[in-house]
């Protein structure tokens, strides 16, 4: 099933060759039009993003997707589908971050468009909202599609033995995290220290020098606490709120608590929705006694798990102190695939220490609480759960039911969506330019295609 187009700012990302195209209408759905420049700009962005030549019939595929997007948008409006402004802002921020990385940074992106980030957001806000409305409507159409074990079996049986996929050895790994809890006295010590540094800065001592001497943020201490320009949505919410409330360069925030500790922030420069600040971070310290208590909590949970007194998922919900994995039932997610299956190399890329831990476990077993460092270098304990383990093999229903279930569901959703598109086309006015009308992907649009 095709995903509705979500290329970033596609209509205006044109190369020189695309700009030379004489524009014209190449597709119409009811009162919505698609221009040749839309197709050319999407094509050029594909080349830029993937660094490859445009596949045969790709322009036809792009036109088809844009036409479907128009159908979905019209239906979303009829169904009163809503997208909150905050959702649109978050999507704009995400795409700007992505595209600024492609172009060499925020400044390069602004130079490319000849506009500020605020102006770029305003220009593309409607387009992004329309894309999100279309995507939301598509999910509404296929969201209620369900399959049962019989459907999965039928799907599996349609695959010839020679066509069955071959899977590398994979594991599913979960964890329960036990963090050392900072005692109130250590928190107060950190607050007192950051408050003293704030008072010194307010009395005239150089903020950057204080940051270089005392800040506990390893990423900025060598730069006098400077973070360089960032956008909304890229920082800890509490830190960001305090930073963006500063109005005049040189202003210093009150003490701010974040997930990292306690900060004071000084504004360097603000450009619309981008901000450059420096900060000083003081982190409340944990002691060996705090770590010992974290291990003790882990030992208690391990005994319950080993005795079968509690399930892994219940233990995660009741005891885990890591929100990222807790929200996924304790299971780690493979960023490469988006699911919970890891090859050993993938798991090593995620966390090398996990590879050694699961080497001594069998599927269904738990490790004793082990000491480790998280991605921020903080010490804590965790129980590791090896849920499943497979050897390299040809796909089969016993070992790979979840994968075939997902594939069968995707196929059924595609069929439901395809039928919806066909019904909507039959009740819509459409026009396809002769340049595209003979493409195979345009077959379903021909029945109602007319001259504009």
Brief summary:
This protein is of the alpha+beta class and 452 residues long. The protein has 18 helices and twelve strands.
Would you give an account of this structure?
- It is a single chain.
- This protein is an alpha+beta fold and 452 residues long.
- The chain has three domains: 10-146 and 410-446, Triger factor/SurA peptide-binding fold; 169-182 and 287-391, Chitinase A, domain 3; 184-282, Chitinase A, domain 3 (Roll).
- Helices cover 49% and strands 14% of the residues.
- It has 18 helices and twelve strands.
- It has helices at 16-19, 36-50, 58-78, 85-103, 106-113, 117-142, 149-157, 184-202, 207-214, 237-244, 288-306, 312-319, 323-326, 344-350, 352-358, 397-426, 434-437, 443-446; strands at residues 25-29, 32-35, 166-167, 171-178, 230-231, 256-257, 262-271, 274-282, 370-373, 379-389, 393-394, 430-432.
- A four-stranded antiparallel beta sheet has the order 5-8-7-6, sandwiched between helices.
- Strand 1 (25-29) and strand 2 form a beta hairpin.
- The radius of gyration is 27 Å and the shape is flat.
- The relative contact order is 0.13.
């Amino acid at each position: 099933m095709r995903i509705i187009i979500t290329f970033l700012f596609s209509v205006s990302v044109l190369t020189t060759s695309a700009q030379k195209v004489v524009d014209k209408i190449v597709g119409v759905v009811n009162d919505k039009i698609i221009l040749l420049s839309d197709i050319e700009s999407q094509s050029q962005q594909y080349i830029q993003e993937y660094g490859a030549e445009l596949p045969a019939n790709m322009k036809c595929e792009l036109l088809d997707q844009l036409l479907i997007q128009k159908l979905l948008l019209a239906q979303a409006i009829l169904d009163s589908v809503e997208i909150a402004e905050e959702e649109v802002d978050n999507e704009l921020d995400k795409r700007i971050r992505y595209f600024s990385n492609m172009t060499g940074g925020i400044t390069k992106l602004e130079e490319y468009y000849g506009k500020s980030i605020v102006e770029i957001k305003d220009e593309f806000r409607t387009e992004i909202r329309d894309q999100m409305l279309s995507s939301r409507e598509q999910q509404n159409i296929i969201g209620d599609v369900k399959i049962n074990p019989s459907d999965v079996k039928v799907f599996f049986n349609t695959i010839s033995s020679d066509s069955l996929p071959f899977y590398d050895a994979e594991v599913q790994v979960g964890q329960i995290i036990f963090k050392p809890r900072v005692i109130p006295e250590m928190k107060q010590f950190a607050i007192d220290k950051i408050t003293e540094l704030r008072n010194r800065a307010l009395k005239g001592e150089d903020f950057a020098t204080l940051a270089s001497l005392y800040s506990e943020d390893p990423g900025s201490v060598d730069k006098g606490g400077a973070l360089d320009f960032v956008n909304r949505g890229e920082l800890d919410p509490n830190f960001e709120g305090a930073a963006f409330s500063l109005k005049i360069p040189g202003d210093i925030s009150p003490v701010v608590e974040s997930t990292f500790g306690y900060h004071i922030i000084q504004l360097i420069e603000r450009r619309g929705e981008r901000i450059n600040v420096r900060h000083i971070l003081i982190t409340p310290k944990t002691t060996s006694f705090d770590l010992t208590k974290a291990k003790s909590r882990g030992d208690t949970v391990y005994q319950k798990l080993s005795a079968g007194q509690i399930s892994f998922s219940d233990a995660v919900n009741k005891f885990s102190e890591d929100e990222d994995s807790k929200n996924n039932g304790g299971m780690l997610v493979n960023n490469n695939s988006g699911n919970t299956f890891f090859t050993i190399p993938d798991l090593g890329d995620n966390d090398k220490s996990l590879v050694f831990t699961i080497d001594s476990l069998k599927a269904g077993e738990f490790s004793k609480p082990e000491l480790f460092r998280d991605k921020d270098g903080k010490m804590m304990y965790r129980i590791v759960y090896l849920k499943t383990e497979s050897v390299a093999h040809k796909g089969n229903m016993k070992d790979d039911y979840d994968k075939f279930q997902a594939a069968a569901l995707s196929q059924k959703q595609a069929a439901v969506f395809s039928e919806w598109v066909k019904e909507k086309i039959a009740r819509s006015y459409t026009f396809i330019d002769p340049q595209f009308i003979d493409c195979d992907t345009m077959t379903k649009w021909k029945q109602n295609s007319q001259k504009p």
